[in-house]
Every structure is written in C-alpha cells, then in structure tokens.
UniProtKB/TrEMBL annotation:
Its EC number is 2.7.2.1. It comes from the Bacteria. It comes from Acetonema longum DSM 6540. This is Acetate kinase. Its main location: cytoplasm.
Length: 400
C-alpha cells in the first residue's frame, strides 16, 4: 500500500511517498517558487541521487503533475505507475471546530475548509489547491485531510476561551485552536513507547521548537492546553512572530506609526520575535553564533525565548497536576543542546535534570535526563508526514 503525503504552501509543495507495508519512505521532495520565476522541483528517491528539475510551474496542478512524473520516471522514479498510489494524505492547517480528527475528503469537507479560510488565509487556500489538483490528476483516489488543529480539539472550554464577550465565540469562533497537532501527537506517542507505558497513564509536555514554536500539555493522551491560539501568532516568541503581547500594543502602534491592519499584521508576524529582538536573524543558529561573539541583543533573544518556554512548562505542570515527561522536538528542539539546557536549568524542583553528556545529541531520539530522574526529558525527532500517512491508511483501509 503506497500513500502519497502532500503539504501545499502558497508557492510550494512538500511531498513524501510511503510504502505503508513497512512505513518506509520511497521518495520525498519539494516544489518551490510556484507561479514565480526560477521554479524548481528537488526530488530525492530513496537510495538514489537527488534530482533537480528546473521548469516553469505556474500553478499547483502543474506542480503536482511534475511530482507524479518524477515518482514514475524510468530513471529516478520509484513506482511504475500512478495506479500504485492508493491514497493521498494532505496536511491542512485550520479546520476550526469542524473536525476533531482526520477525515476522508468529501464535498462537505471541502466546503468546511472554504469556510475556515478567514481563520487561516495564508494556509488553507494552498491546502485546498493541492487537494483539487490531486483530484484532477488522480480521479477516484481517496484523499484524507489531517488537520493541525484536530489534536487540540480535546481542550476544555476553560482552556480555549478568551476573555471576550461570549458572543464573539458564538459568532466568529474566536477561541484558542492550537497548531502543530500532528507533531505533538506523534512525539507524545513516541515518548510513551520509549517509557514502555501507555499514553493514557502519562502527563507529557511537548515542546515543538522551531522557527514556529508551540508547547502542549498532554494529559493521559489528550491535549488539554497549548500555547498557540486563534492563529499561530499567539504563545512563545518565535523566529519572526511576537508571540503573546498586551493587546493594547496593537492600536497604540497603529496610531504612533500610522499602520494599517495589514501592516501591523506583517509587523507582528514577520518582523518581530527573535529577529526583531536580536536584529541578527530569525535563525537560531545565526543568533547563537552572534551571542557567542558577545552580541548582547542576540543573547537577550535567546534568554527571552528560553524563559518563555520555561514559564509555559511550569504553567502546564500546574494545569496537569504534575508531569511525567518533557519532550523537545522540531528543528531547534532537536538540534540545540544549549537551548535545551537553558530551558531546563531551574526545573530541578520537578525532580529532573539534564545529563550534559546525553544532551550533546542532535536529531536523535533519546532520553537526556540524568539516570533515575523522576521526570524524564527526551529529544524526539518529529515525523508529521508519517502521522498523516498512518491516518490516511486507517481511514482509507476499507476503500482500497
């Protein structure tokens, strides 16, 4: 059973082709600069050389067709025909309150995704384009939507509602939704396996730390709170996003700087975060390098980031009445021993401490807490694509 996983951005398509008999990746790749000059497909078949195809890619339909051609090519392909692809799984960012789990894509589901465009104007439209392109090129092949927000639909009302008039929730769905759900779900499951315990017996805090970052409190297998909110702007300080701020700052800045709503949105989403604080970069590798040479603002950006993560960990320990494991994942969480150490320094009161020798790892699943620690600390590489492929296999199992 071969499942194609597709993640469409506004000008890009990420993909992986899985053999679900053993969950191996047969090929993966990235289509970039769709609708722009210099569009390109980078295709990596398993066990073969990487292939770079430079071609005019005016839209997502052409991009998907190029992907399918690469997968079936006589030289660098990994399947003989598109008929070998029995199902397609799509990452979809926002489904509002409409879906609490992954679903088979139907006309009603597509209508629901259209209705959620206002909540995710940068993400849902390209997700929809990708689904339509696959339906056009592979008619009859079942497709599944796997939602960033779905895993967090178990949050109780007291965790997801804002302090706004209740009518704002009823009329516009203004509430915390949370994102990175597939990542939080996957690494919590992996942590439970490593601990040789059932997920329903554990309280786990998962830290998805990258250019976009979020934390989730997972109590007995269910997300009960998470740091991102109505949009991915809320929560932690991130690469270019401000994270949580006093709401009064927005009208204040708009008046002082003469900003329009679109300009303040760009200011908070693209010019803030560790980029705005450090003045160096949105990439933590650059910021850590600058801090090592004595750049005070770069060091300040790191300190602020680590402090905010630590605060969320502490608050989620309180929310769950304790914690059994803390998990670091995503680009920064998996690859920065210094950031992990800075975050965990001061959490010894929980009964945990990082082992400096174990913490030297990058991108490898391993416990990094000292032997015998009451609360385990793990590094676990995320694999959102595998979650999507697994959900697709389960949902489409009876259809193929």
């Amino acid at each position: 059973m071969k499942v194609l996983v597709v993640n469409c951005g506004s000008s890009s398509i990420k993909y992986q082709l899985f053999n679900m008999m053993d969950e191996t990746v047969l090929a993966k790749g990235l289509v970039e600069r769709i609708g722009l000059e210099g569009s390109v497909l980078t295709h990596q078949p398993d066990g073969k050389d990487k292939v770079v195809i430079q071609e005019d890619i005016p839209n997502h339909s052409v991009g998907i067709k190029l992907v399918l051609n690469a997968l079936t090519d006589g030289k660098h392909g990994v399947i003989t025909s598109m008929k070998e692809i029995v199902a397609i799984g799509h990452r979809v960012v926002h489904a509002g309150e409409k879906f609490a789990d992954s679903v088979l894509i139907t006309p009603d589901v597509m209508n629901a995704l259209e209705e959620c465009i206002d909540m995710a104007p940068l993400h849902n439209p390209p997700n929809i384009l990708g689904i339509n392109a696959c339906a056009e090129l592979m008619p009859g092949v079942p497709q599944v939507g796997v939602f960033d927000t779905a895993f967090h639909q178990t949050m109780p009302k007291h965790a997801f509602l804002y302090g706004l008039p209740y009518e704002a929730y009823e009329k516009y769905g203004l509430r915390r939704y949370g994102f990175h759900g597939t990542s939080h779900k996957y690494v919590s499951q992996q942590a439970a396996e490593i601990m040789d315990q059932h997920l329903t017996n554990l309280r786990i805090i998962t830290c998805h730390l990258g250019n976009g970052a979020s934390i989730a409190a997972i109590k007995y297998g269910r997300s009960i709170d998470t740091s991102m909110g109505f949009t991915p702007l809320e929560g932690l300080v991130m690469g270019t996003r401000s994270g949580e701020i006093d709401p009064a700052i927005i009208p204040y800045l708009m008046k002082k700087e003469g900003m329009t709503p679109d300009q303040i949105d760009s200011y908070l989403n693209k010019k803030s975060g560790v980029l705005g604080i450090s003045g160096v970069s949105s990439d933590f590798r650059d910021i850590e390098g600058a801090a090592d040479t004595g750049n005070e603002r770069a060091q300040l950006a790191i300190d602020i980031f680590a402090y905010r993560v630590k605060k969320y960990i502490g608050s989620y320990v309180a929310a769950m009445g304790g914690v059994d494991a803390i998990v670091f994942t995503a680009g920064l969480g998996e690859n920065s021993p210094d950031i992990r150490d800075k975050i965990c320094n001061g959490l010894e009161f929980l009964g945990t401490r990082i082992d400096p020798a174990k913490n030297k790892i990058r991108g490898k699943a391993q416990e990094i807490s000292v032997d015998g620690a009451k609360v385990k600390i793990f590094v676990i590489p995320t694999n959102e694509e595998l979650v999507i492929a697994r959900d697709t296999r389960v949902i489409c199992g009876g259809l193929i």
